[in-house]
Amino acid sequence: MEKIKRIGVLTSGGDSPGMNAAVRAVVRTAVSNDIECIGIRRGYQGLINSDFVNLNSISVGHILSRGGTILYTARSEDFMTEKGRKKAVTTCKMLGLQGIVAIGGDGTFRGALELSRLGIPVVGVPATIDNDIGCTNYTIGFDTACNTAIECIDKLRDTMQSHERCSVVEVMGRNAGFLALYVGIAVGATAVLVPEHPVDFQKDVVERIQDSRLAGNTHFMIVVAEGAGSALDIGKKIHDSIGMEPRITVLGHIQRGGSPNARDRETATRMGYYAVRAFAEGRGNCIIATQEGSIVEIPIEEALQRKKHLQMERYEVMEAMQVSRIRHTEE
């Protein structure tokens, strides 16, 4: 690659806490390497529409602690077409962008791959609360989202305990249960339902509530990832099976918001720094990932082929922690 003089940075897909910290790191690292940085607003759609803003060290000041993304984010149907992608490349050439730092999840990286195939070098930074990017141990926003969900569920537990009720809480995770399982362990859930584990409703929900009640518990917390079923449907099944009237809570987009915690600020800053350093040292078309605590670069095509599987060891830990009565078996 030729010496990089100007790059763009965008955030795409669902927002996650820490995206702003990553943008800040990209801009300030670029400035320290005598590289201009242009902010592309509204993701790939902004690249198509030439929606941009000049960024410098001052303009990204005081955004480290802010949730969301100052560059906004959007999903672009236009970019999924050949015409849209070519228009995005034209914008890059018009602005003199020699590379793009794309902050987001799997869809963002697939868009980055398409750009790279059209001659625009891209470096991806993984940011998604689902933590489901196969090439990296950790994605920006996961820890903050977990803590947000835990805080909400702890408050729900207080009122569930007071009224001796069952609560069914739906958390995000359409295709992955990392968030639900992590949160479920942290709050001591009665049951956790995740997309990766086939749900046996009688065994996984009804019997666990019954065993917990027979052990002396009077309130119950069911955590369900959205991809494992609707909280409303789970609540109705509980009512039909054992007569309880569960209270349903769908946390929804509250999990995306809020000030990023220390882990997400620090990880985002490191990833943003290494993204620009890759460009400065003549590399591109890679994803910045964490592997066993270290930052590594993985080629985009290879990164997209990797899969991340739910750690069943965590599922076993969750099951072992659940309250249950002692079953006596006759010889």
What this model shows, in words?
42% of the residues lie in helices and 17% in strands. The model has no long low-confidence stretch (mean pLDDT 93). The longest helix has 22 residues. By secondary structure, the chain is α/β, with parallel strands linked by helices. The chain is built from eleven helices and eleven strands. It folds into two domains: 182 residues, Rossmann fold; 114 residues, Rossmann fold. The protein has a seven-stranded mixed sheet with strand order 3-2-1-4-5-10-11, with helices on both faces. The chain has a four-stranded parallel sheet with strand order 7-8-6-9, sandwiched between helices. It is elongated.
Task: Tag the structure with descriptive keywords.
Rossmann fold, 331 residues, four-stranded parallel β-sheet, 2 domains, elongated, 11 strands, 42% helix, seven-stranded mixed β-sheet, alpha/beta
Count of extended strands? 11
What's the CATH topology label of the largest domain? Rossmann fold
How much strand?
A: 15-25%
**Overall mean pLDDT:** 93
- Overall number of structural domains: 2
Taking the sheet with the most strands, its summary is:
7 strands, mixed
Instruction: Please tell me the CATH architecture of the largest domain by its name.
Output: 3-Layer(aba) Sandwich
Report the total helices.
Answer: 11
Cα-atom radius of gyration? 22 Å
